[in-house]
Each structure stands twice: as structure tokens, then as C-alpha cells.
Amino acid sequence: MKAYFFATCLGGIAYSNTCLNAIKLLQQQGVEVIFKKDQTCCGQPSYNSGFYEYTKKIAMHNIALFDKPYPIIVPSGSCAGVMKVDYLELFADDGDYSVVKEFCSRIYELSDFLLKELKVKYEDKGEKVKVTWHSNCHALRVAKSIESSKALIRQLNNVELVELEREEECCGFGGTFSIKEPEISKAMVEEKIADIKSRGVDYLVSGDAGCLMNITGAMEKSGAGVKSVHLYDFIAQRINL
Q1: I want to staple 46 with a disulfide (CB 3.0 to 4.6 A). Which of 32, 51, 163, 172 is the partner?
Q2: Does domain 129-238 match CATH 1.20.1050.90?
Q3: Residues 6 or more apart from 187 whose CB is under 8 A from it?
Q4: Domain parsing of the chain, residue ranges
Q5: The model's pTM
Q6: Could you read off the pLDDT of 115-151 as tens digits, one per residue?
Q7: Spatial distance between the Cα atoms of 50 and 194, rounded to a whole number of angstroms
Q8: pLDDT tens-digit map of 144-196
Q9: Nearest by Cα to 66 from 115, 90, 99
Q10: Are the C-beta atoms of residues 130 and 202 closer than 8 Å to each other?
């Protein structure tokens, strides 16, 4: 099987090791991973800011770039949601809709692809550990990949997953939102951290780099004492990839 890998902006800027681990998880299952060097943003910042025509140009660049009929794997529910669902709304009344629809049908958030298409079964090789999980808003409500992500964690026998009391609440990042509304964003992440600390866990796990960057930075500044890790780094560590 061949598949494209879409690294995302934050994957390229701050989470390159996470991207490498995500690629290794695919290669472990026999997937030939194709990485297009001219890939760019999914277009979410401009889309959320109302620049729809500009976002269409970004989308058409991605559609032209990933031109073969291979699955397109995205290690982020946020970006996957934009490319799988929001592009359809963006081009709903456009002559290119049929081309866009075919492209969107090939988008998979990585955990969905690993669980539903590759049918992975992981053997946990790590020590006993207690973790909690943060659900990214777009992954939860648009890409709808959260249950697959949690299912992968639950395959790990030595990992206890403790649910957050207010898991579905935003961490305050929201891309451009945290820049436009910093005081509200700060209050939201502080509430998220209080929920995380109340769970008595060793790690916070999340499948989205933006949320993880936001929560990690705030936890380090507040001395929360909880480590954070991206889902695909965590899985790679647990199976000694």
C-alpha cells in the first residue's frame, strides 16, 4: 500500500520528531509513505479568519500536489477535519466541487487509518503509567477521530487512561483565537490544567500539536508537574518503535 503523508505546519515547525514517529508507525505496517516536499498549510488559519478565496487557493494547491489516488494521512485531527470536511463546505457552490470531493474522500487522521484501515494491534512494552487525554475541538467535532485515538491508547495494557471531567472543553488555543483573545485563552487553558492536575496522572496525551503546545507551555509556566506527550510519540515509545 502507498500513502501520502501530510505533516502539517506545526509538524514541520515544532513537532518534526512526531512526524517521523507517525511515518514509522505507518511503515511498520508495510505502508510505503510518500512525502511531498512542496506541501504547505491545510488552510485552517485563513479559513477560520474568513479569507475563503485565499483558502481555496491553498486547497487547490494541495489537491494538485496529492494527485495520485492514494490515502492522505494527517497526524492531526484539526488539519484532517479541514481537509476532509471544511473543504467540502468551502467549495459547495464551486465548479471544482467534484474534484475536491474526491480529494476529501482520501483524507484520514492517522489514528483512524491505523485502527480502521490497517487494523493495528499494539503490544505494550512499557512500565505501568497513568495518563489522561485532551480532545482537540476540530478532531472531536469535525474529523471525529477521537474514539480511534483513545482506542489505540486502550490497546496498551500497562497504560491506565483516566478521563478528564471536562474533556470536551477547548484548551484556549484555537489557532488565531489565542492571538486575538489572549486573556480569554489564558483563562481557558488554566481551567484545562486544573482538570488535568485533578486526575492524578503522570502524562497528558493529545493528538494535536497546537493544543499540546499551548497546554504544555502553560503547564510548564505554572509548575503543574504533569508531563505531556503527543499521541504518536507515546505509542512509538510504548511499542519500542
Answers
A1: 51
A2: no
A3: 172
A4: 2-117, 129-238
A5: 0.94
A6: 999 999 999 999 999 999 999 999 999 999 999 999 9
A7: 33
A8: 999 999 999 999 999 999 999 999 999 998 877 887 888 999 999 999 999 99
A9: 99
A10: yes
